[in-house]
Hints:
Blueprint: E1 9-10, H1 11-21, E2 28-32, E3 45-46, E4 56-57, E5 61-64, E6 78-85, E7 100-104, E8 116-119, E9 123-126, E10 129-132, E11 142-143, E12 154-156, H2 164-172, E13 177-181, E14 184-190, E15 195-196, E16 207-208, H3 211-220, E17 225-229, H4 237-250, E18 253-257, H5 268-272, E19 277-282, E20 284-287, E21 293-297, E22 300-305, H6 309-325, E23 336-341, E24 345-346, E25 352-362, E26 365-370, H7 379-383, E27 386-391, E28 396-397, E29 402-407, E30 415-419, H8 430-433, E31 436-440, H9 443-451, E32 457-460, E33 471-484, E34 491-495, H10 501-504, H11 506-509, E35 513-517, H12 522-528, E36 534-538, H13 542-545, E37 549-562, H14 568-579
Parallel strand pairs: 1-20, 6-7, 14-17, 14-18, 15-16, 18-22, 20-25, 23-26, 30-31, 30-32, 34-35, 34-36
Antiparallel strand pairs: 2-13, 3-12, 4-11, 5-7, 5-8, 6-10, 9-10, 19-21, 21-22, 23-29, 24-28, 25-26, 25-27, 27-29, 32-37, 33-36, 33-37
Helix pairs in contact: 3-6
Domain MoaB/Mog: 187-326
Pathway: Cofactor biosynthesis; molybdopterin biosynthesis
Protein name: MoaB/Mog domain-containing protein
Amino acid sequence: MTYMFDNIKAFDDAYEIIKNNIRKINDFEYVSVYDAFGRICHDDIYSVNNLPLFSRSQVDGYAVITSDLQNADREHPVTLELAGQTYIGNPPVNHPGNGKCMKVPTGAAIPVGADAMVPFEDAAINGNMVTFNAPVDKFNEISNAGLDVMRGERLAEKFKMLDERDISVIAATGQNVIKVFRKINIGIIPTGDELIRPGENYVEGKIFESNSLAIYQALKKYNSFNVKIYDIVRDSYEELKKVINASVTENDVTITIGSTSAGEMDYVYKIIGEYKPGILFHGVRVKPGKPVLFAKAGERDIFGLPGFPVSSIMLLYTMVLPNIFSMVNYNFKNYSVNAIAGEPFDLHRGNTDILLLKLVRHKGSYFAYQVRGNSGSISRIMRANGFSTHNSVTGTLQKGDGINVNLFDPHIPEILIAGQYLPDMEFMPYDLKINSIFAEFTYNDIRESMLNNEADVYISNYNEDLYNENYDKITFLKNYGLYFNKKDYKYLAVLYKDSGLFNICHDYIEGSNIILLDRPGMIPDYVFNKRCDAGISYSDYSEMYKIPFEPLGRIRFNVYINKTGNYYKILFDFFNSIKDKN
């Protein structure tokens, strides 16, 4: 049995251990073309017919023999007898020969013996005689059989994941079943006494279990997997062992969530360590996600993921999912773009950092900004539109450095709003909101960035004015005050030190135990749920929480809108409209 965190691996080394030891599956099955989307080809797929299947017309027109029209011009037109017509879906008929033509609709078979089509609009008909004023090239407006795809041509390579384009072409050649790798069976086991299912009555101290749901949905996107979530397993050695044994027996891959760390009740790694060959590594130098493990029970593979939401889902994307696909030799890659760090990033030297990022497309380039928070902050995933895996040597990623970003969503916003958070941004129209990101900047960050004309909007609640001729300014005055559940507070929640509001509230902070929070809406929530005695935030939330609120003053927000930006007018109109609500 491997001991807890014995010989912690570098991320790349751990990845290689999985890659070199994960089971390879060669089992196959035949599926209908109607069920083939997202399946992986077991063999190369070849066409069994030509495409087009027959020579067909690309226009509504007349089927002719080109030699009849070789001398035609406006001074010497050629007149041919209309000798009949064909119909879509009917077998090809014989062309009657020189001196004659036939009507043929778009998509119908070319009469045997004809070698060109002339569109109706390029000819004139009078009774059963048709006049032509110009010659045509051989095969004019004809799709010849096999012009698109030849019989025996390879349509899809082995190990390719089939999409709607592949399936359309394969079906067009007449094939109705495809040989694919069988689906990989995956079991997900959430663990922990603290967990309850969404929809159950909340009990103080419990947590609504969402990790398994996130991982389940991430895997269910792929039609190559059968995925099953087991019921929540309590922190009981016997119960955990029973369910893990069941999953290992029933599935190719088992993914456990939680109970991989060093706690007294963390049994998962102890149980997995009893299998043979057992745990291949436990502990990786990665942030977040250090307690991750990989093990084998015979040929079956086991991933033990940490219980924190960000840790588990990010390890799924970066370490687990690509290696599960490698079981059938599919080279899974996230869609990624090369971006520029829009701000400095503090990294963990000697570790691999999995960074959740906000990406914006600005002036023809992509810029990446941090989504701040810890690995237990599940909303960080929702606020990010990409992530990056970065091996840290120096401990810092400097502003302007290149960074490769994997995308959650191919839609990349084009509006950058930077500075201090203004609650009124919640009123932003949907089309504007989905096309913008907000990045937290300090006063000095704003000043430097504004000189370089980097953002569409800057928001500052510091007293100093940041005049810049390229920006229009709109000023807001926001009420702030003390939310409290006891007046003689010992624990006070406030915004982070570079928030502007922190500096204004210095007298109230002195002598208190301070809880720094990222967003102003979190502060009344902390007070309401008695995670602290009091907190200082904006008055916007007083109606929502219905807790005592004592006004302390007003703080000025200056909103600077880039006059040279593509979205100047819509942004100016929005901020100007909400100014009247304050």
